Amino acid sequence: MSSAFWIGTYTGAAGNGRGIYRADRSPDGVLEAPVLAVEVDSPSYLAARGSALYAVSEQDPGAVLAFDAAGGRLRPTGSAAVAAAPCHLAAGEGVVVAASYGTGEVSAHPLTDGRLDGPVSTVPGHGSGPRSDRQEGPHAHAVAFAPDATVLSTDLGADLLRAHRVEGGNLRPVADIPLPAGCGPRHMVIHPDGTVFVLTELGRTVIALTPGAGYADLRIRAETPVTVAATDDGSSGAAIRLGAGGRFVYTSTRGADVITTHEVTDVGLRPVVDTPCGGTWPRDIWVDGGWLHVANERSDEISTFRLDPATGVPELVGSQVVPSPVCVVAAADRA
Fold first, then answer.
1. pTM metric for this prediction
2. Which pLDDT score is estimated for 2?
């Protein structure tokens, strides 16, 4: 388990934050008062790998930023301009990939010793969906590295799970996996058994996909509700994380403002219980051993829950004031 965390916030007109914060966890699990580590415009998603921290700046145009995080301080080591509204990124071996919501573009950024180094390779988005208010065009929302090095990306605007490969420093599209029309895929996790669980923002479901010959050949196995209680269009799926080595999956739903504990079954997921998130608008969650931290964007706080080791159900232990938190990650990434 980690004892320190990085927190991304919305800034300026988008929120009350000032950049990336660092917070230690107290013995009772609640985060201590956060300290501003660096001022950045709307660092809405973070990824830690080794002694480096990577962030997006969700602006137009946007940016991918790299920091040396050794010793708990952030020292900039590079930046790269990207298309409008980058909202997610993932760090792999020798490369960072990012998703730009504004255009649907996915970009790959080579690394040397953890620093951004070399030309950026991009793949444009394409497609649209039936929801004219949210799906008028492509909106890349998340990226992840699969075990076979395939780069997966969700496109909320086009109802697609897209597969790419990084070859010779270049990002190359490999396959598009269609998802149910109007579902709006947002975030994803890859289970230790190989299953890809995709949380849908608009459909408020979790889709389980099984790889065939590889992760560019994914097939839908099941689709289950993101919550136990019924929700309406005033709610939207937000975050998804694995817990207890894959025994449980946790999701957050904004509007309903709940964290849902799901059991992993042979088919997919079974939602077990909805737990109030401890605030308002739970945009992100982070599971760290027996603790779960929730970034409640609109109530300016990160709530901490203790996870029952037998049932996986979270119990609120307290909250810490953080301005407009939208992402929380452990200071050392062990993934």
1. 0.97
2. 78
